[in-house]
Specification:
- The complex is a heterotetramer, with two copies of chain A (about 425 residues) and two copies of chain B (about 350 residues).
- Chain A has helices spanning about 70-95, 110-120, 135-140, 145-150, 185-200, 215-230, 260-265, 275-290, 325, 335-345, 350-370, 395-414; strands at about 125-130, 205-210, 235-240, 240-245, 245, 270-275, 300-305.
- Chain A is built from twelve helices and seven strands.
- Helices cover about 35% and strands about 10% of the residues of chain A.
- With about 425 residues, chain A is of the alpha/beta class.
- Chain A is globular, with a radius of gyration of 22 Å.
- By secondary structure, chain B is α/β, with parallel strands linked by helices.
- In chain B, the strands form two sheets. A seven-stranded mixed sheet of chain B has the order 2-1-3-4-6-5-10, with helices on both faces.
- Chain B has helices spanning about 5-20, 45-50, 60-70, 90-100, 100-105, 135-140, 150-165, 230-240, 255-265, 280-295, 315-320, 325-335; strands at about 25-30, 55, 75-80, 115-120, 145, 170-175, 215, 220-225, 245-250, 250-255, 270-275, 305.
- Chain B is built from twelve helices and twelve strands.
- The chains are: A alpha/beta (about 425), B alpha/beta (about 350).
- Chains in contact: A-B, A-C, A-D, B-C, B-D, C-D.
- The interface between A and B is large, with 46 and 45 residues.
- The complex binds thiamine diphosphate (TPP) (2 copies) and magnesium ion (2 copies).
- One magnesium ion (MG) binds near residues 210, 211, 240 and 242 of chain C.
């Protein structure tokens, strides 16, 4: 026997200086994939994990059985939410560059994921987002100033200065807390859904994880518990191709789609064009109905592209071609929905420009307000005493003592 | 008053809480139909149903994670880890999530999860069924850590833990499940029915976390301990004829510093004892704290009694276990010193 | 919407007092499943994860493309190894009942798994067994007395008294150490295989995990790393239907086969009749060739039945019908291979009885020797000093001190 | 002699070991092509190849497990955990496997794995990029635990760790990557090129694990510390005009008890300082040990300086960090006492 095994190293299609190459992405034509009944058994619909559900074609026409037939106002609202997300991201990125906030993470190029999915769910459904799902806050009507105050760790920060920027949460909006530890929210969402089922409530849970983070043990825990208890949950893998510098092949995407993990556990798995607002909406609606009617959990892989840097601490020029997003075969989610609306005669370049301007102003006005509540190193500040609260429900004696000590230290410095 | 062993007392605590509070659910490996490998949850699934007492996959990380999600959704999960030695696959969810959720959300979200797990040696369990990892968790801010030493406390503390809105790691010294144990494996086993703390009310009551128990008042020296070592240390002191004050901490976080320091200030001498390995064990925190608070009262260096800094070996269980001989050496050192 | 999700609880087919019901086990007829080329891509052979590879039919005839055509001596050797495993197990179980050893775990009913698989591998291949794979030691020629000395924690115990009974290891035999912590060996085996590939060696690794233990995170880690690096490894799930008291449905087996997890990760997954010596051998040989020639890892699900209690601490009468193994549709692996050999004219009831008697004697003789090296509480004992060795390579000062202290304690007691 | 910052020194250590020993492999998230988020492995994949410097999936548990298997098969893996805060998913493989393998197999199997991970705060990382979990691992018998405080030690200790047949947890105080830090974030950053320990030989050398460094001899009191606090504590003592003996432990397991006790016996006063949370932190073990060994020499209770027992909050980084003010309070207490 001459052939010997050699350690296989996943292939990255192109590195800086090379031409972007997306031939590895398996595409299906818009409208081509069948839409099974929501009660179909997971094992009978495994084709969904291989194909790519798409509704919008290259001309902006909506095709096929997954066409959700949303009314125009919904579409316009979706466009607005996505654009607001992008405008917000851009502005916050700039404030970070100006040193106003310590850190930021944009969702450029993947706005359809959070926006279409949150729109397809009900307000009572509980969301367990990752750090790149700011769009869900926007859909649920979170005042931007609240998000900004978190970014600023200022006196109105809902986290009371305890979390890194972007680690929002919102009790009233049913949006769970984002953790700095990857993937941990995924099985928690399943537990939340199990509780809903135990209590006989019809709220469902949804969670998001990056394709890179799907390598963590908690991804497995989530799928397993969802399968065993048939929990009413939607588990979303946002496959934006990159995890910081690491290509999706290193998370197992080279051998098989991430959606395919679902059928492996007896869970419906479905691969969708993540930059196609209509397809994402339709697939999420289908999965939600499955969950809500007791037909079980769904794993959705949203195929998209992380168009920006990983975070403000990252420089993607070190590890991938500069013009990659321009060549990304699934395009830009905002441009595609805009094209569709224009094609329907329900949108125009002028309206788009006007909306952009309006949203820029909205963001600016919110920022103006937010900074009045303080910035990390300027203006009003949270009381450092707060550091000792909420470690436990009641402040225990040893933390009382440490708080005293801290006060003395601060008094000495002043 | 009814007699219960520690298993029955824990079972009673869970039965009462399942009955009183519809949000309480139990979950864990083999705990449902079977009633648990130590039979602690026996009969509870039959009585309260499959949706209140859940058999789970063998995935400690998944169990804790699911419990957190359930806690966030208004339930009050009591998760069993079959042996404390198997808690580590759930470590990240405990440390990074359960312990941190209230803090990072400024109190907006929290998960009132109780994690029960049998710990300690003395049942020929070898290195993977004998560990006492409680010390590790005392270094993790945001979780409470408790260990009862008898049926009465076990029931009252477990009820208090389940009712607590903070997460609690509840360690059960399995060598004490069926009776107190003075460290000598060759003596006939003593059942809880012979011990006053084996008298356990049938109904609801709590023993608060954070309050130590002076199980024996005394003047010669203070022994600070918890779990199995409560009995071993007391027996060793008695055998030496020492008038020792024996403090059973019951909970390590929160810690009853007042009771400890009042005692040490009175006696001037102190031995700290636990079954866990010595180096960086919880005993170190106790010694550090006592010398900080009671330095001027100390007439001798505080001595530690602990498991050796090795895994718990199957063949040398009793050479490993901190039995009366080890306690005696420490007691002598602390009494003879100065 | 009226249907609401309720928490699903996996169904156990029968409880004590009920009639055993194995209708849930999907069977394929012997000889019916195709045998793909060893270089087939995982995604093209997912049928193997659904069907059940069987060679021996109910009459003991070997059928179909997976028939490994072993020569008679191999078959007789396999029978001998399985029978020796069973005789050894029975005897050790009895010594535990007599209080000679503290604990024991039998592999009754699943002897074909370890025996056929170890025989299909090469001596240089590294095995990462679970606690129910004693058969691999027998195949590799481990003197029984060595195993017994471990069970006795005596002066010749290869673990020096440190491990619970059955947690063997054998450097010379390329058998890795068994851990009391479930599933941990599975990704370690993948790491070992990665190292073989890095070094360009053609040894492969194989590991075994119970279907219950497949719920652990390490199962996921193993599949993921095996997939990403295409490690030369065989990952075996021994689905003996039970994990202590917990039915396989609670590990996710209700929705999908365990073999199906493989294709989810882009790994070949194959479901095999675990009580069919020939099928297990053939499938393992196929997987080994795949691994050795660089075609990647394989996940094998061995469908079998834990005929005995979980361990000497367990009483299955509390949670399952007493006569369940008699109704198990895949029968007894020893009886089936015996029947096949008799059919071939290469075996007989007399030879079988004679072999049994010979093996009983062999085991008895080994036991007689083993106890001369000591028992847990009787006879020669290991020096307790040994407790302090091997925590680190060199004994550090604090352990030297503790060893002194222990010596003093012992001296005092004597 | 060449000047290196700590990142360059670590890079040099790995480069040398990859060159000298074909069994050395590096693995971790983003460490290969990209060279690591802190650039510690920059250029090493290009130089030594994709089979020696492996990018891995984001699965800390899988990384450690695979490293163990590779170690058993004759390699000498150096695994990076991107931040110490993310080591917990690998906890079970570290505690139950890596630390126990040699023991449970009576030395027949072992895995010489080094786990490198950046720790500590001071870079605005918030609660999940600032932790110092070293204390937890010091309670786990079977792993060595080290933390260098400067480029020279970092390189020599990393080489020693890689060559060590025992597993080593190698914590890198990330605030010190680019220069020493005296605790005042408002002062201009100081580069390593201004510091004698920034002089790092190009070639191979080792700094043994288990040997503390007296970074400043003195007679008034002993400061026992490691990592970032080495500089903070020394600066605070200097600012107070104290003739402090400052001991940089460099490794916690094994611990250089002799150097510590010799010093405390000489000075009679001791402050223990680390950045990790106080309760049950490694400082507790140090205090316990010192009072056991040096009780009769102590003229004042040993004081601990540490992070508060809360997570590391983003907005209050400098109120949290145990800076010079906190050290000063402890120094005063220990000097004024008696
Ligand atoms: C447990 C853990 N390990 C490592 C990290 C460091 N880290 C933060 S983001 C990231 C990449 C995640 O990539 P992916 O899941 O694909 O999400 P994306 O950034 O593409 O949205 C890494 C490795 C972490 N935060 N938590
Ligand atoms: C991490 C961990 N969790 C729990 C246990 C306790 N335990 C030992 S064996 C077992 C059942 C395993 O069942 P399975 O994997 O199906 O193997 P089988 O016994 O059927 O061979 C359990 C829960 C353990 N040893 N380790
Ligand atoms: Mg990604
Ligand atoms: Mg099983």
């Amino acid at each position: 026997m001459n052939r010997r095994s050699r350690l296989h190293v996943p292939r990255v299609p192109a590195r800086p200086g090379e031409a972007p190459d997306f031939s590895y992405v398996d595409l299906s034509p818009a409208g081509a994939v069948a839409r099974p009944d929501v009660n179909a058994r997971a094992r009978d619909i495994s084709f969904l994990a291989v194909e790519l559900v798409r509704v919008l074609d290259d001309n902006g026409e909506a095709l096929g059985p997954w066409h959700p037939h949303l009314d125009v106002h919904e579409l316009q609202l979706g466009l607005r939410h996505m654009l607001l997300t992008r405008v917000f991201d851009d502005r916050m990125q700039r404030t970070q560059r100006q040193g106003r906030i310590s850190f930021y993470m944009r969702s450029l190029g993947e706005e359809a994921v959070s926006v279409a999915q949150a729109m397809a769910l009900r307000p009572g459904d509980m969301l367990f987002p990752s750090y790149r799902n700011q769009g869900v806050n926007i859909v649920r009507g979170r005042p931007l100033v609240d998000l900004m105050c978190q970014l600023l760790s200022n006196t109105r920060d809902m986290c009371k200065g305890r979390q890194l920027p972007v680690m929002y949460h919102w009790v009233a909006g049913n949006i769970f807390s984002i953790s700095g530890n990857l993937a941990t929210q995924f099985p928690q969402a399943v537990g939340w859904a199990m509780a809903a089922a135990i209590k006989g409530e019809d709220h469902i849970a949804a969670s998001w994880i990056g394709e890179g983070s799907s390598a963590e043990a908690d991804f497995h825990h989530a799928l397993l518990f969802a399968s065993v208890y048939q929990a009413p949950v939607i588990l979303n893998v946002v496959n934006n191709q990159w995890a910081i510098s690491t290509f999706q092949g290193f998370a197992g995407g080279e051998q098989r789609s991430f959606a395919a993990r679902g059928p492996g556990y007896g869970i419906a798995g479905i691969r969708v064009d993540g930059n196609d607002f209509l397809a994402v909406y339709a697939v999420t609606q289908w999965a939600a109905e499955r969950a809500r009617t007791g037909a079980g959990p769904t794993l959705i892989e949203l195929v998209t592209y992380r168009a920006s840097a990983h975070s403000t601490s990252d420089d993607p020029a070190r590890y991938r071609p500069k013009d990659d997003f321009d060549r990304w075969p699934l395009g830009d989610p905002i441009a595609r929905l805009k094209q569709h609306l224009i094609r329907l005669g329900e949108w125009s370049e002028q309206r788009h420009l006007a909306l952009s301007a309006e949203l820029e102003e909205l963001v600016a006005a919110n920022w103006k307000e937010a900074v009045t509540y303080g910035m990390l190193n300027e203006g009003p500040r949270l009381n450092p005493d707060l550091m000792f609260d909420d470690v436990f429900k009641e402040l225990p004696p040893h933390l009382q003592r440490q708080r005293e000590q801290m006060r003395a230290e601060i008094a000495k410095k002043d | 008053m009814p007699q219960m062993n520690m298993i029955q007392a824990l079972n009673s605590a869970m039965d009462i809480m399942l009955t009183r509070d519809p949000s309480v659910v139990l979950m864990g490996e083999d705990i449902g139909y079977f009633g648990g490998v130590f039979r602690t949850t026996e009969g509870l699934q039959r009585k309260h149903g499959e949706h209140r007492v859940l058999d789970t996959p063998i995935a400690e990380g998944g169990i804790i994670a699911a419990a957190i999600g359930m806690g966030v959704n208004g339930l009050r999960p009591v998760a069993e880890i079959q042996f404390a030695d198997y808690i580590y696959p759930g470590f990240d969810q405990i440390v990074s999530e359960l312990a941190r959720l209230r803090f990072r959300t400024a109190g907006d979200f929290f998960a009132p999860v109780t994690i029960r797990t049998p710990c300690g040696g003395g049942i020929r369990g070898g290195q993977t069924h004998s560990q006492s990892p409680e010390g590790i968790f005392t270094h993790v801010c945001g979780v409470k850590v408790a260990m009862p030493s008898n049926p009465y406390d076990a029931k009252g503390m477990l009820i208090a833990s389940i009712e607590d809105d903070d997460p609690v790691l509840f360690f059960e010294p399995k060598r004490l499940y069926n009776g107190p144990f003075d460290g000598d494996p060759n003596k006939p086993a003593v059942p809880w029915s012979t011990h006053p703390k084996g008298e356990v009310p049938d109904g609801y009551y709590t023993v608060p976390l954070g309050k130590a128990d002076i199980v024996r008042p005394g003047n010669d020296l203070t022994i600070v301990t918890y779990g199995t070592m409560t009995f071993v240390a007391a027996a060793a002191a008695a055998a030496m004829g020492l008038d020792a004050e024996v403090i059973d901490l019951r909970s390590m976080v929160p810690l009853d510093v007042d009771t400890i320091c009042t005692s040490v200030k009175k006696t001037g001498r102190c031995v700290v004892a636990h079954e866990a390995t010595r180096f960086s064990g919880f005993g170190a925190e106790l010694v550090a704290l006592i010398q900080e608070e009671c330095f001027w009262n100390l007439e001798a260096p505080i001595q530690r009694v602990a498991g050796w800094d090795t895994p718990y070996p199957h063949a040398f269980e009793w050479e490993y276990f901190p039995g009366q001989a080890r306690v005696t050496t420490a007691l002598k050192a602390v009494m003879e010193s100065a």
